[in-house]
Amino acid sequence: MIRLRVLELLEKRGKTKYWLYKQMGTSYGALDKMIKNETKMIKFSNIEALCNILECDLNELFEITDSVPKE
Question: Which domains, and CATH codes, for the chain?
Answer without folding.
Answer: 2-60 (1.10.260.40)
